[in-house]
Design a protein that fits this description.
The chain is mainly beta. The protein contains 3 helices and 25 strands. It has one domain: Jelly Rolls (Sandwich), CATH 2.60.120.10. The relative contact order is 0.20. It binds cobalt (II) ion. Cobalt (II) ion binds next to strand 5 and strand 10.
Length: 314
């Protein structure tokens, strides 16, 4: 059912990982006051459509907020109208970055130019490193009912943009759930509450958490201090940092620097919390290709048109 990993994780990244890139999480000798990450910007997701006409809400990658290094795009699809999603995302290419699919409800089937096929059900995650090129389809596996999930795009540094494609297909049972203060937290990537997420060996050392704050609940979440971070509220409403502003579902919150985020809620709320090491390189992007220069984009388009984007193995 699950797509085979194209190479052992350690071998995949051997020689291309900076030893100094990982956040320093060693306990310090004396206690230091934690710095709260405060709200820098709140941006409402914009209604749009992609693929063959899937209706979605785009929060990152919109005109209002083009990216937050290393994150390039965040889409939420949430509808029970089959006509909003049935057309799916038929065969399309990617090069130069990573696509992450996280399902809350419903199911998607993916199929690609390397012969991988898998089904993503509720709670599952697919972290796909497109590298030098992949052509895949992502199609709803249901004819009706609620379809709810996310797609996140994460950039790759120049030295890894043309790496061999790689998948991590993660069954929901592998995503640990823990309690942090009042909240329950699914740990997808990075560390939280003593758990380490199942997504591994990602160069931007991401932290990806799905946080549910109960009504009248409050929790504090550690975040790697050097990372850029955002929260995307997708159910109910929450308050973040020391701000008293109520952030409702459908809004992305860019967080300032610091070590921790305090979240609270009156009526209950749920949000994705993402943090990643910034890459700090120029970004040239066009549709499904994200490179460093316009010349590299032209090359990707050319490779795709002439059938040289992918190594076909299946
Ligand atoms: Co895709």
């Amino acid at each position: 059912m699950l797509a085979a990993t194209t190479a052992p994780a350690a071998a995949w990244l051997a020689g291309c990982r900076d030893p100094g890139i990982a956040p320093d999480l060693r306990p310090s000798a004396r206690p230091v006051a934690l710095r709260e990450r405060e709200i820098q910007r709140v941006v409402a997701a914009q209604a749009t459509s992609d693929g063959a006409g899937v209706k979605l809400a785009r929060s990152l990658g919109s005109r209002a907020l083009s990216m937050l290094d290393p994150f390039l795009m965040l889409d939420e699809f949430h509808t029970d109208k089959a006509s909003d999603y049935l057309a799916g995302f038929p065969d399309h290419p990617h090069r130069g970055f990573e696509t992450v699919t996280y399902m809350i409800h419903g199911a998607m089937e993916h199929h690609d130019s390397l012969g991988n096929r898998g089904r993503l059900g509720p709670g599952s995650v697919q972290w796909m490193t497109a590298g030098r090129g992949i052509i895949h389809s992502e199609m709803p596996k249901q004819q009706d009912g609620l379809m709810w999930g996310f797609q996140l795009w994460v950039n790759l540094p120049a030295r890894l943009k043309m790496i061999k494609p790689r998948y991590q297909d993660i069954d929901p049972s592998r995503v640990g759930e823990t309690h942090i203060d009042d909240s329950s937290v699914r740990v997808i990537a990075g560390e939280a509450g003593g758990l380490t997420g199942p997504v591994s060996e990602i160069v931007t050392a991401p932290q990806m958490l799905d946080v549910t704050v109960p009504a009248r609940g409050k929790s504090r979440h550690r975040l790697p201090p050097g990372h850029n971070a955002f929260a995307y509220v997708f159910d109910g409403a929450v308050k973040l940092g020391t701000s008293t502003t109520r952030i409702e579902r459908g809004n992305i919150v860019v967080l300032g620097p610091g070590d921790q985020l305090t979240a609270s809620s009156e009526e209950g709320g749920r949000f994705l919390l993402l943090a990643g090491q910034p890459i700090g390189e120029p970004v040239s992007r066009q549709g499904p290709f994200v490179m460093n220069t316009d010349q590299e984009i032209r090359q990707a388009v050319d490779d795709y048109r002439s059938g040289r984007l992918v190594d076909r193995e299946g």
